[in-house]
Each structure stands twice: as structure tokens, then as C-alpha cells.
Amino acid sequence: MQKARCFARPWRGAPGRVVSVVRPLRLRSCTRIESSPPAYRRADDLASVSVTDALASRLGTRALELIDIPSVSRDEERLAAHVLAVLRTAGVNVRDAGDTCVIAGVERRGQRPFVLLAGHLDTVPAQDNVPGAQDADAIHGLGAADMKGAVAVMVELAIEQAHRQDDAAIDLGFVFFGREELPHSESALTPLLAREPGLCDADLAIVMEPTGGELQLGCLGNIFAQWTFHGRSGHAARPWLADNAIDRAAAGLSAVAGHAPIPVELAGLTYHEVVTATGVESGVARNVIPDLAIAQLNHRYPPGMAPQEAETRLHALCDPHGTLEVLSNAPSGPVPIGNALVERLQRTGALTVAAKQAWTPVAEFGAAGVDAVNFGPGEPAQAHARKEQVTRSALVHAFSTLRAFTEDAG
Prior knowledge:
Layout: H1 53-67, H2 77-89, E1 94-98, E2 101-105, E3 114-120, E4 133-134, E5 138-140, H3 144-162, E6 171-177, H4 189-195, E7 204-207, E8 215-217, E9 221-230, E10 234-235, H5 245-257, E11 262-266, E12 269-282, E13 288-289, E14 292-301, H6 307-318, E15 323-330, H7 340-349, E16 353-355, H8 362-367, E17 372-374, E18 389-391, H9 392-407
Parallel strand pairs: 3-6, 3-7, 7-17, 8-16
Antiparallel strand pairs: 1-2, 2-6, 4-5, 5-18, 8-17, 9-14, 9-15, 10-13, 11-12, 12-14
Helix pairs in contact: 1-3, 1-9, 3-9, 7-9
């Protein structure tokens, strides 16, 4: 894989020009389909795939079944056991890989290209959206979009692949794992890749995060930081005798708010480097000027920017106003330039190609030396929403694209 490096402009003034740092990927451009929920178009070479009501029903039923098994982060054991049992009963080559992880299908590279489908089993906490429900168009409930709809596609595809004739052009492996919704340091995927080296021989990993049916490349690095402002406490009636830490925080946060997102072009795709305040704490009593204020910051940085460089840029922005402490720094995920399987996947589904403006496990695969992309049925805007849903058409589109991908001789 060709390695790309990102060169973003300093944190000054309005956004500058977009800087191209590597040649664009040679992927066919497709028109974005604007609708809500999205209407998916199949490529001509998917015309032979029978997209029937039976398939939509099967995928929807499986998604609802998974939604109704609670699996909030750190409580995925029951769902992992269920996925293991379903696949084993269906005759799939599957095993418990420990620590809420399940591996199915092919586990290491053979004579054919080896591709992993990866999906996390955990969800964020419920918002009165369990149990799930379904109607003619969609499946509703906790994790429908992020990402039990995708896990349903993986389960059904694993079952189908286990019983088909051995004429596939690609060997498929399936990786189910937990704790993705927690900080990067707690993910079950990185330790899994360390103790299962055969998985790292994969030619490509397809992470089935919500992409709305797009092929989304790379992912952003993700820094969480604490920004502390010190002052001098005093009586609210005599502010000239004190130094209000809230005023200091306001000045710093105003400086952050004044920095527009910085666009960075990489492989023909535009990512945005952003810094956002996500929380502020201060106050002693209603009549006390506080001497301490603390803000929480989230810095998202583009592929190709080293984690230390991102921290340096954040310090340059924040240090003039307060004391910055980086709490966590999850590296960005690389763009897999020159990977023929990525081009095959795009061509098979006539997929729109876009930048992934978020952090995903693509970064974990990248750190293990595995090229990875994002492609899944969920809509990003639906993720973590109280009224979360995934459409039946999206499930069918993802399943059919991946099925055809395994049959495409390239």
C-alpha cells in the first residue's frame, strides 16, 4: 500500500486552500443519491442478483432478533454467544475467539484473495428504544444502524457462503467483536488482531460501520483532551478583587470557536480537521467567583497526520489560554491506495466513494498492517439516535453488493 502523509495548514484565520498530497484513487465516480431514507441503485452487474421480498424479510427478521438481545458496551457476552450458536447451528465454520469476539468463515489467506468483514456487537446505552420493531420499510431500535443491521448482513452472508459451491473468487472471513463504542484503548478488536495473526494476512478488511451504502475510505484520528483554566476566587459582589476562571475559559473557547474546519485533500477525498468543545464545568456557589474552569475538547485530524503532530497542533491552539492535558489519542486510519480489491468493491456495487469524517476500526486494522475500508447499510445520521432505524432496502443493498463482490472474478 502506498503511504500518504497529510500536510494541514496551521491554526490561523479562515480555511486556506485544500492541499492535495497524493494522487487520486482511480475509482469510478457515482452520483450521490439524495433522499431520506436513501434509495439504493444496483450496478448493471448486480442485475442477475435476485433482490426478493424473501431476502428483505430474512435480513429484517435477523436484524430485529439481534436488536432484541441487549449488548450495551461491556455487556456483549449474551449476543456473542447467540451469534456463535446461530452460525454453528447453520453449519458455519465458527469459533469463540474470547473476550466477546467471534470468528467465522475463512481465518487465513489461501490461494484466493482473503477479505474480512468486521462488525461490532456492542451498542450505546438504550434510550427507550428496546425492544425493537419493524414495519414495511425499516427495522427500528437500539443499534439498528450502528450496527446490528450490518451484523445481520454478516450473519446471513456467512450462512449462505457456508453452503454455496466452492466457486467464489474471494475467501471471506467474519469478525464480530465488542467494546467498539468505548474509548479506543478498551476495544476488543486490537487485542484480537494481536492474538490471531492469521487475520492480519487479510488482503482487505471491510468494516461495516454506518456509511449509508457509500464506500468511505480512511478515518479521522480522535483526540480527547481536558483544558483547565485557573483564576482567583472571590466574592461575586467585588469582581475586581478576583480573577474569574469562567472568563478565562470563555476567551479560550471563543478562540477555538473562531477556527473553521480545515479541509485536507487526500487521494482525491476531502477530510476536515476540527476541534470542538464538548463540555464545560465550573462554579462553587451562586455568589462565588470561581478560580477553576475545565473544558472538554475533541480534536479530529485527517489520515496521514501523525498522532504526535496532531497533539502539537492542538497544544499550539490551546496553550496560550490554559493548560491542556491529552486524555486519549486514537490514530487515524490510512486510505488504501492502489488496493485492487477496493476498486473491485466499488465497481461491483457502483458505490459512491467518500471520505470517512469520523473515527472507525479502520484505524485498528491499519495499525495491524491490514488495508481497510468502511461500507455498511446504516445511515450515519441514524447512529445513536433515539429513533434509530435501518431500512430493508439498505440491508438488501449491502448484502447483494457483498455477495456479488465475492463472485466477481475481477
